[in-house]
Design goal:
The structure is a homodimer. The first copy, chain A, is α/β, with parallel strands linked by helices and about 375 residues long. Chain A has a single domain, classed as 5-stranded Propeller (L-arginine/glycine Amidinotransferase, Chain A), CATH 3.75.10. In chain A, about 25% of the residues lie in helices and about 25% in strands. In chain A, strands 1-7-6-5 form a four-stranded mixed beta sheet, sandwiched between helices. Chain A has a four-stranded mixed beta sheet with strand order 4-3-2-17, covered by helices on one side. In chain A, strand 3, helix 3 and strand 4 form a beta-alpha-beta unit. The radius of gyration of chain A is 19 Å and the shape is globular. At the A-B interface, helix 3, strand 4 and helix 6 of A face helix 3, strand 4 and helix 6 of B.
C-alpha cells in the first residue's frame, strides 16, 4: 500500500530517470476550466484526446478527470485510455503531478512537491489550487506507490529536465522567482533538487520564454535527448520573441559539462516562425483571480514541449511554416524513434503544450 | 485496459464466486451524506474505519471517497487502506458497486447493474443517484477490469447471495418490487440473473426484514456458508419484528435443493434481542426526497450482514444481549475462520451493516 516516506530519494538510492528510459504509464488530466480554455474546454478536450491517442500507441494512458466531466470524458476517449477520477484545478499534470523516481531493483516511488499554481499569491495563475496540490498523492495511491512529500518546497515538473545520470537543467527565471521559494537561497534550492531527484550537477539557464505564465519553465527551452546530449530551441531572428532566451540558453548549454564531466552535445530545434495567437477569447470566462487571456495575444508555442515515450515522440505542430523543419530536426535527433505530429494550438492557447499536460511513470 | 463487453458472463464462461472463495481486494465507500448519517457522518466514519481496519487484516482495502472528503478520509484511515476518489451519493458499494465474475483461467470481469437507490421514483431512498450509478464502472476502470453493462435491469449486490456453483438466493419482496423491474416477469428476472451470474437455480425466499428501505435484501436474512450450506436468521420469539420473515425463510431453505441437487443444510443465526433504535436523529439533515430517520425509530440490525473474507469474518456487534450468542454460533459454523467482532450500530443507523458497505473482488 502507498506509504509516505520521510527520508529522501538520494538517501534511499532512488533517482529520477530520463524520459528516454522505459515508461510504464502516461498520466494526463482532462481540461475543462472555462476561465482558461475557450468554449468550455471543448476544443481543448479534442486536442487532449488526439494527444492521448498518440501516446496510447506507445504506453497505457490514464486520464484523470473531475467528477462532473467523468461521463463525458469516458464517452469521448477511446476505450484503451483508462479514465479515473482525480479532482484538479486545471490539467497540467506535468506540474502538479508526482515526479517518479526508481532504484536499481526497479522499485518506483513518487516525489510530491508543493504546488502553488505557478507563483501562489505573488503571481500565480489562478486561485485556489487546493485540488492540484492533492493530484500527486492521488496518483501514487491509485498505483499503490510510496511517495516523498517535499513539504515547504514549491516545484513543478515542467521547470526541470534530468538526464537520469545526475544532471538537471532548469532556469533561474523560474526557480529563483519570488512566487516559488523566496525563503531559500539558490544553494538551498539546489540541495532540495539534489536530495529529491538524486543529482550531482545543476545547470542553470537564465530565462524561459513565458515570464508571465510559468515564469520560464525549461520544458519550452531545452531538454535531454539522451545522456550527454541536449536539445535547445534556436533562432537567429533577432526580432523573434524567443531570441534572447534561446540564445542565452544555447550559449550556457554549449559551454556546460554534465555530472559525469561530459561536455554536452547541443542539438538545435527551430521555433515557430509566426507566433500562435489566441482566437475566440470571447469564449473564455472572466474570473477574478485567474490570469485573463485576450484576443490576439501571443500564445506560448514551442516545438521543444514534446512528449518522449518508449520509442515514440509526440510532437507539437502549429500549422506554422516551421512545422516541417522542426519535424525534420527532431527526426534527425531521434533516428530510431517514431515521431507523431499532433496539432496542438488549443493546448498552447491554454498556456502549455504536450509535455506540460503529460507525466510519465517509469517502468519498475 | 477496461473494456465494455456486450455478451454475458454465462456465454463467456464467467461465474460469480462465493464469498468464501479467495479474494484479491475489498472495496468500500466513505460515508458523509448528512441527510442519512447523523452529525455529518463523523460517527459513521469512525465505524467505517474500524471495519476497514478489520478487513485489512485479511485483504487489501480500497476506500472510495468524494472529492471534498479525500483529505479527511486519507488523514483518518490507516496507511494500509488505499484511498481513491470515487464520487458517490452514499456509501453502499455492495449495492451500487460491480458484482465480480471469474473464469477458469482466473480472469476477472465486472457486472455493472443499473442502480436506482432502492426503488427509483417509486420508493427510492434519495434522489438523485447519478454518482452511485457510475461507481461500478469506475471501480472496474481503476483496476483495468473489463465489464458487462446490464442496461435496463435494476439490481443490487445485497439483494442476492450465490454459492459459486450455480445457485442464488434472493427475496421476492425485493426483486419483484414495483421500484425495481416492473416491466419484467419473475421468469425474465431469473433469466437475467442466470445469464449475468452464470446460474442454474434461483431459490426465492418470500421476505426480507426491511420492507421500507431495501425492500427486503436477502443479505440481512440468509447467505451461504459454503456450497450446500446456508445460514438463516432465526428466532422463536413471535413478537420479534423479524419473526415472520425469518421463519418463512428458514422453511423455504430447509426444503430447498441447490443447483447441484444437494439438499441444503441450514444453520441458524440469532437476531438481536432488543432492536437497535436511532438516537441523535436531530443531527440528521432533513432533505426533501431523502427518506427521513426519526428519533427512536427501529434501525435494521442483523448479525447475518457480516463480511466474509479470506479466512476472516467481520461480524456485527450491537451491544445486545444476543451479541455473544451470535458470535458463538458463527464461530461454530466457521470453525477455521477468525471472527472479528466490530460494533456497528452507527452503520445500522444509516440503514445497513458490514456486508452492505463492502464489496469483494475475487482473486484472479
Amino acid at each position: 500500500m502507498a506509504k509516505r516516506i520521510d527520508s529522501t530519494p538520494k538517501a534511499d538510492g532512488y533517482r529520477m530517470p530520463g524520459e528516454y528510459e522505459p515508461q510504464e504509464k502516461m498520466w494526463m488530466l482532462w481540461p475543462e476550466r472555462p476561465d482558461n480554455w475557450r468554449n468550455g474546454g471543448k476544443p481543448a478536450q479534442k486536442a487532449f484526446i488526439k494527444i492521448a491517442e498518440a501516446y496510447s500507441r506507445f504506453v497505457p494512458v490514464t486520464m484523470g478527470v473531475n467528477s462532473g466531466q467523468y461521463a463525458n470524458a469516458r464517452n469521448m476517449l477511446p476505450p484503451e485510455v483508462r479514465v479515473v477520477e482525480i479532482s484538479n484545478d486545471d490539467s497540467w499534470i506535468r506540474d502538479c503531478g508526482p515526479s517518479f523516481v526508481i532504484n536499481d531493483k526497479g522499485d518506483v516511488r513518487g516525489v510530491d512537491w508543493d504546488f502553488n499554481a505557478w507563483g501562489g499569491l505573488v503571481d500565480g495563475l489562478y486561485f485556489p489550487w487546493d485540488q492540484d496540490e492533492l493530484v500527486a498523492r492521488k496518483v501514487c495511491e491509485i498505483e499503490n506507490i510510496d511517495s516523498y512529500k517535499v513539504a515547504g518546497f514549491v516545484m513543478e515538473g515542467g521547470s526541470f529536465h534530468v538526464d537520469g545520470e545526475g544532471t538537471l537543467i532548469t532556469t533561474e527565471m523560474c526557480l529563483l522567482s519570488e512566487g516559488r521559494n523566496p525563503h531559500l537561497s539558490k544553494e538551498e534550492i539546489e540541495q532540495y533538487l539534489k536530495d529529491y531527484l538524486n543529482l550531482e550537477k545543476i545547470i542553470w539557464l537564465p530565462d524561459g520564454i513565458d515570464p508571465e505564465e510559468t515564469n520560464g519553465h525549461v520544458d519550452d527551452v531545452a531538454c535531454f535527448a539522451r545522456p550527454g546530449e541536449v536539445i535547445c530551441i534556436y533562432t537567429e531572428d533577432e526580432d523573434h520573441p524567443y531570441y534572447d532566451a534561446a540564445q542565452k540558453a544555447y550559449k550556457v548549454l554549449s559551454e556546460a559539462t554534465d555530472a559525469k564531466g561530459r561536455k554536452l552535445k547541443v542539438h538545435k530545434l527551430a521555433v515557430p516562425k509566426e507566433m500562435v495567437r489566441i482566437t475566440g477569447a470571447d469564449g473564455i470566462d472572466y474570473v477574478e483571480g485567474t490570469m485573463p487571456r485576450e484576443e490576439g495575444e501571443m500564445a506560448i508555442a514551442s516545438y521543444l514541449n514534446f512528449g518522449l515515450v518508449n520509442g515514440g515522440i509526440i510532437f507539437p505542430q502549429f500549422g506554422d511554416e516551421h512545422d516541417e523543419l522542426a519535424m525534420e530536426q527532431i527526426k534527425a535527433i531521434f533516428p530510431d524513434y517514431e515521431v507523431v505530429g499532433v496539432r496542438s494550438e488549443e493546448v498552447a492557447y491554454g498556456g502549455g503544450n504536450i509535455h506540460c499536460i503529460s507525466q510519465q511513470q517509469p517502468k519498475g
